[in-house]
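Structure ticket #2291
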Amino acid sequence: MGSESDFNLYKDKDGNDIQIPLDTFLETTTVLEILRERTSKINKPFSDAISFDEFLSFLLHWRESTSTSPSGRHLGIYLALVTAYRNKQGEFSPQETKGTDIPIKHKAGAILHAIHTLLDAASRKGFYLKRWTKVINAMIYKCPGCTELEKLRSIHLFEADFNLIIGLIFGRRAMYHAAENGLIHRGQYCKPAGECNDAVMLKILHNHIACLTKTPMGQFECDATACFDRMVMLFVLHCFLAIGTPKTSCKMWELSLMHVVHFIRTAFGDSKSSYASTPTQRIEGPGQGSRGGPSGCTIMCTPLLEAQEKLAHGITFYNPSQQRRYHLASAMFVDDNSTYTNKFLRWLNCAVDHTEVIEHLRHDAQVWERLLWTSGGLLKLQKCLYYVVHWQFDLEGRATLTPSSELLPHIQLSSGNSGNYNTISQYDCHLAHRTLGAWLSPSLCMKEALRRLTIIANLFARRIVTSSLTRWEAWMAYFSVFFLQMKYTFPISHHSSTSLRRLQSPAVRATLVKIGFSRNTPLAVIYGPIDFGGIAFRDLAVEQGIEQLCMIIRHIRSDTEQGKLLLITIQWWQLLAGVSKPLWGNPTILHSSLPHTSLTSLRTSLSHSPHPPCTTFTISDSLPS
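Resolution: structure written out below.
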């Protein structure tokens, strides 16, 4: 199935038919069928040629401090050649002593053209350079001071020109080609124009609808073990071929990794001994540090997510009039995956036992585990967790979340084809967990998220007070460190204005003293614009509303999965309020019965605006006919 058989999914290098064993997992068979189907639809791959302008552009956008090149031809040498070739400042002028001297710009250009020609030929003809086969592995801490093997991260230092061609063909060109042609699954958000907060927003909206409609839901959180070191590269390359990547470029990457020899770098220098792949034992993965690693993980997950939608129950939501439908099995960013399950219409109209929810979730989680195992990945089941959102009603009809202690039995999953089962940790719906930097829980409680932000804010305040920063440096620290740390999760948070102003107070007061103001300066001066004599600090309560509004407008106008689900959520929220006027269009009208969610948090922010966006968020079919 490799380059020796021209990447044929049906026949091996000897011309024999490739047969899938009868005892193969259904998940594995489904993925291979999807790959064959997608590959057969590719009419013409995109170009494998590398233009000189692309070559220079990629170098100019590469940070010079990046560690590269075991041979010593590090990135700084390439960038020095580019600087001399461009000569924008006129620093390199030809000497006038001898008329035969060649200007340094021409010399640099000749060297760069030679390097570019070699890289272009490697991409178009599918060969590799022997120099590319030496790779240095440097170990860095995952947890500072912990030297356990599982707590160390292995970073691969490739040759700069090899990493450049991989990043240009696979990391840039293939990714943009797949994104522009809709070849990346909608559940994967590690892609051009994608953000990790997009995957988190889906989770927030799932929890919102479950709380508004009081319907059960299952949620499984997982993370792959050593993702970039376990990906079967032959499978990854076939996934690239299925989106139109040229075979010659895939052959170049395959042969390079097949002949790579690894050395270890420590504080004592590089090791003399090495390790490499053998015909019977391959070293898999593109390696952490490869410019093609993140794109390889994204493209690889597309057939996996497609297979999961065929085999798993997934999660489905309808609006009150059942005119809008939303369905998804998983949402992920790189290798961080969240799997969801429900039977919305049936569970909305009749009571359901929690064991049915658990069984649906167990099935979907096992499907994803086997799909990931098919690609060479592995779930660290000891770190996986799940939530079961189940409601119990009292005699007055009031709903409360069922405690996790009553939601038995626990889920057990097998690992690959080993037959060994592991019990997965179950979290109570009021207990938050960290997902892509945000602390969330199905109950929509933000106490843990606020506590974590408070720790960060207090630490910043202490460091500012005890530092020797100048006034300008303290000013820059507030905006480039504190403010960015605080606002990162604001699009998907709903902290109260009081708690945010209490949160920012220590950091603001400490910064005021450091830049020469009284810590008791009036708030109007602290947060007022500079043009009117203010200091122009940012009020976090206002910033949260701005970030929420920007995120919502972006998704609704772009008609993304988040935008579709958001419209469904708004309509259930409107129905729960029991009024016909749009809630966001009329934010000053009080509705005490509405629970405190992201929707009501934004509504509170809009109530302080003189011009609420009544036309932008008017939903014509918000109520069932």
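Closing remark: Confidence is low (pLDDT under 50) at residues 614-625.
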